[in-house]
Amino acid sequence: MIEEKHIDELIKSPARFIEKNIIRKKQIELPDLEALELDMKELKVTCKLYQELYDFLCYADENYLFNTSSGSPFNTISIDRQHFLVMILSGKLKFEDTTKLITDSIITIANTSSNYSINTMELMQLLMNSIQEDFLRLQALEKCSNVM
């Protein structure tokens, strides 16, 4: 009956129980993809994980999942949302088919930018700035008009 023991301990000494059982917040810094020396396989896996984390933090930002004193779940990893998106796009541009990257990025931006504090057009501009070739930018604009 571990639960009963915890309850008894909480009742007898709440401060001691809290001190003993609370995980201390620790500032987490997410390494920049450019700073990491990754081979192509590692880069793909890292970008996939970063994308999943980005999607989760966007979801957390739009739905009250956990309290952050800074107001944004992205601050828990010491990075702003826009910089994180650019970092993911830059990494994916090294290995992913550009047409697929554009489509996936537009869908991600459209699905994760309902938060009032993030402007969808601002995120789309970050995508456009990540694309170097003019014909790909035109393709991205066409896809944007289809999705939006």
Task: List strands and helices in order, with pairings.
Layout: H1 2-12, H2 14-21, H3 40-62, H4 81-92, H5 98-111, H6 120-130, H7 134-147
| Total domain units | 1
On the 0 to 100 scale, the average pLDDT is: 77
How much helix is in the residues?
55-70%
Q: Helices and strands, in N-to-C order?
A: HHHHHHH
Largest sheet: none
* Low-confidence sequence ranges: none
DSSP E strands, number: 0
How much β-strand is present in the residues? under 5%
Total helix count? 7
Give the overall shape, derived from the CA principal axes: elongated
Structural class: mainly alpha
Query: End-to-end distance, in Å?
Result: 55 Å
- The Rg value, from CA coordinates, equals 20 Å
Question: Which keywords apply here?
Answer:
single chain, 148 residues, 0% strand, 7 helices, mainly alpha
At a glance:
The chain has 148 residues and is mainly α. It has helices at residues 2-12, 14-21, 40-62, 81-92, 98-111, 120-130, 134-147.
Would you write up a description of this structure?
- The protein has 148 residues and is an all-alpha fold.
- The protein has one domain (29-147).
- It has helices at 2-12, 14-21, 40-62, 81-92, 98-111, 120-130, 134-147.
- Helix 1 (2-12) packs across helix 2 (14-21) and helix 5 (98-111) runs parallel beside helix 7 (134-147).
- The longest helix has 23 residues, at 40-62.
- It starts with a helix and ends with a helix.
